[in-house]
Amino acid sequence: MSYSVGQVAAFAGVTVRTLHHYDKAGLLSPSERSHAGYRLYGDADLARLQQILFYRELGFSLDEIAAILEDPQANALEQLRARQRRLGEEIERLRRLAEVAERAIEVQQTGVALTPEERFEVFGEITFDLSYATQAELKWAHSDGRREAMARAAAHTKEDWRRLMGEAAAWRAELLAAFDEGEPSDGERAMDLAEEHRLHISRWFTSCPADMHRRIADDFVTEPRAFALVVPPSQQRPGLAAYVGRAVHANAARHDGGRTHSLSEEHS
Fold it and tell me: Per the database record, which ranges form the HTH merR-type domain (predicted)?
């Protein structure tokens, strides 16, 4: 069966101009002619067109496609492997770009009035986790608390952020020391560190009552991004997030008369 240029263009999803270009380039020339001299494509031509479109979709140039079709046994496998490698590299490049874009969006959402250079200088490893401090970390809080945290974060000056991050670094050093020295998570030292963390949130972002602090601590255990805000991955130890969670719960119980709260109870 034979098909006109228009018919082939319609069901192949290309333009008539594209088919004319393939013909002119010697890549795909119609093998038949009508009685009136019009070009017609046969089944073999359509099969070749399908191959061309397949290789074009993979990003091959017309010259590369011509070389493959000229001797498919000699060229196709090698060319496809090379293209697979390049596509893998491009996928990785796009993945990195997507991560950069996501991080940039997160930084912009914090409302922090610092240049990118200042953010790197002040925040270091946790630069791109600030949105978690002001959004995800507070997801269990009422909306007024979230709005307050965002507003206060946006109002912080560079010097405020320096002080805030300095406080956090000093607290983190004490936490790691307590953990490494085997202090119990429900001991006074660990509970005091939990209380310091609660007051830090209240001082810099929004009021953080015990129930809210418990929910934040539960996020440390279940959400790696939340705990990375408190302890960057390079400084983390196995079991440290759970340790902080237990310390926060123990500290909260200390302040509400010893009543403990299970994770299921917190989320019921």
Answer: 1-71
226: left (phi over 0), alpha (psi -120 to 50) or beta: alpha
- pTM reported for the whole predicted model: 0.50
Residue 32 phi/psi, 5-degree rounding, is -130, 165
CA distance 75 to 54: 15
CATH class of 111-266: mainly alpha
How far is residue 93's CA from residue 72's CA, in Å, rounded to a whole number? 30
- Write out the H or E segment, with its range, that includes residue 206: none
Tokens, residue 144: 């007024």
Distance CA 223, CA 209 (A): 21
| Residues 3-70, CATH architecture | Orthogonal Bundle (1.10)
**8 Å CB contact between 210 and 252:** yes
3-state secondary structure of 151: helix
Give domain limits for the chain: 3-70, 72-110, 111-266
Task: Choose among 204, 224, 206, 212: nearest CA to 255.
Answer: 212
CA nearest 185: which of 208, 217, 139, 212?
217
Bridge partners, residue 41, by sequence: 3
Average pLDDT of the chain is 80
Please state, as a whole number, how many other Cβ atoms lie within 10 Å of the Cβ of residue 108.
Answer: 10
Type and span of the H or E element at 263? helix 263-266
